[in-house]
Design a protein that fits this description.
The chain is mainly α and 394 residues long. It has 16 helices and no strands.
Length: 394
Amino acid sequence: MMLGWGLRGFIGGGPFGAMIPGAMVILALGVLYPRRDWTMLAAFGAVGVGFGGEMTYGQTVGFIVKAETFWWGFLGLGLKGAIWGALAGAVIVMGFTPRTRLVAYGAAAMILATWAGWKLINEPKLIYFSNLLDRPRAEIWAGFLLAAVALAMVVGPMAQRWAVVCFVGGFIGFGVGGAIQGLGRIFTPELNLHWWKYMEFFFGLCFGWALAWCAAHTALPEEGSAESGAPAWWAEMAGAVVMTLALFAVAWHLDVRFAYLVGGSLLLVVLTRWPWLAKHVAYSVTFAAVALDLARYWSKEYQRGPAEPAYALAVAAALGFAWMVRRWDGEPARMLNLLMWACVGDAVVKFAIHPNGLANVVDHVAAGFVWMAVAVSWMMRRHHDGLGAAVRAD
């Protein structure tokens, strides 16, 4: 998840970017704790971690990097990270037993609680962690805090335990990670180091640790959500495209501060009826957002060329990735390698098209993405070999 969060900060951002570490951490748990199928849980993980991506925190970071507002920034980042973790933890637990009624009640509870917190606390800015004096941002953390509490109450004790542990992990990760950046920029302003990236890496490390601790101390169900009744290839691909477009449309055009949470919550309900879509929610949507982000930077941010061919290539890449997901889905290690290296490759290309060109590619390698991905692949291979040796010994 540490790698996934670092990638999210560079090739994604927002709720769709946060789906990268959400999917990756569940796949990693699938490698460590084999069950029949982790696909549905990966979808709940990607969407659940994505929810927190709607919280604004850039101006909160602006507080922690100044000595006079350091502690207010620390409190704000710690609280937002804790809420991010708690809500994601409760959503992931709901994915262990994705019954339609339970998920529908959970979705309704999240949406209503988020709306209440947004209207009662965030919109009137009763407690505010952004900058009131300079382009104040619309916050949503209180709404998500109530959503985490409401969902944990609906789902039950297991969700409550995961939410509490992930609350702690998220607070440490974002609070201390932000402090690392703040103290580095306060006391060593002359050093042009990647302080923001260190914050992201540390948050991913602590958040991932919390989820791993929960998995290690929970009697996980032996059976996953069996994927039954999958349609013909053309119908599956069409369903994946329609579902992706629907989620993008709701997240980008619904006129509420928590539009992705509304779209993602409804999508989780849909998955309980058509579980064969889960793989595309977890992986295909995640990569589609990454590919579209690259096309935007090529055509708009870096002005390397016209938009139409860039977006056409992004769509083609997303469809190709969805086809590979359809063919390869099933083994967590294989899917983790596919998603991880696709995102790392996208990041390398994004660095390469930057106006600084080759210097940015070297910087990217130095930042650790490639080396971390190599390490993850190596560890999965060692783990697989170790399991094989144990089976042969038995």
